[in-house]
Amino acid sequence: MSVTFTVHDTLAEAPDAVRADVWALVLEADDAFWPPLRARTPEQGLSVGAGEVLDAKPDAYWTSIQQHALISAAEDGRVLGMMSVARDKRLDALELTVAAYLSTLIVAESARGRGLARQLYARLFELAQSWSAEPSVATRTWSTNAAHLPLIAQLGFEERLRLKDDRGVGIDTVYFVKPL
Fold first, then answer.
1. How far is CA 58 from CA 29, 44, 55, 107, 171, in A?
2. Per-residue pLDDT, 165
3. Which residues of the chain fall short of a pLDDT of 70?
4. What is the pLDDT of residue 52?
5. Beta-bridge mates of residue 91
6. 3 state DSSP class of 99
7. Who contacts 87 (Cβ-Cβ below 8 Å, separation ≥6)?
8. Number of domains present in the structure of the chain
9. Are 84 and 139 contacting, i.e. CB atoms less than 8 angstroms apart?
10. Its pTM surpasses 0.85
């Protein structure tokens, strides 16, 4: 089977079937993030939260990424991987505006190990280059994210800022940038 990569200007404008598959990916991956996606809101940003926040679905997070561009990887009509990307994003912590800010990268558990994340990144780099004469891509993650950190190192991202214990004791928030 062959994987098809598609870019939608915004998640909100993607076809309903794609949105449903992406929502299913968000639900599947919720606990793989720290803090979980359901504990993130536009007002709070990253918040470990408690009680009703951690018992809820990631509705606030879902709402917050609706205006992001969506890069999807699909096979047989089913989305297996996705990236939500903010265009021309100002990162106050870095005092920098980047052409593309990767907010979310998710690959379905059943599709991992096939190189989809790397291929999604290739599409992201192409997209960022089409958006800016001086393109760069940024992302942030947590210091214990063993699944993502090796890939972004292999892709040539540079660590720009580390906020010690920002996500809890021993869990830093780490910002990375890759000029293209």
1. 10, 14, 9, 17, 21
2. 92
3. 1, 41-55
4. 46
5. 96
6. strand
7. 69, 99, 100, 101, 131
8. 1
9. no
10. yes
CATH of the domain at 70: 3.40.630.30
Q: Which residues contact 147 (CB under 8 A, 6 or more apart)?
A: 32
SS3 content of the chain, % helix, strand, coil (to 5): 35, 35, 30
Please name the helix (run of DSSP H) or strand (run of DSSP E) that holds residue 177, with its range, or none.
strand 173-179
pLDDT the model gives residue 46: 52
Calpha distance 159→96 (Å, rounded): 14
For residue 135, how far is the Cα from the chain centroid? 18
Paired strand residues for 81: 73, 107
Residue range of the domain that includes 155: 4-179
Q: What is the mean pLDDT of the chain?
A: 91
At 79, phi and psi to the nearest 5? -70, 125
pLDDT tens-digit series, residues 13-54: 999 999 999 999 999 999 999 888 888 765 445 545 444 455
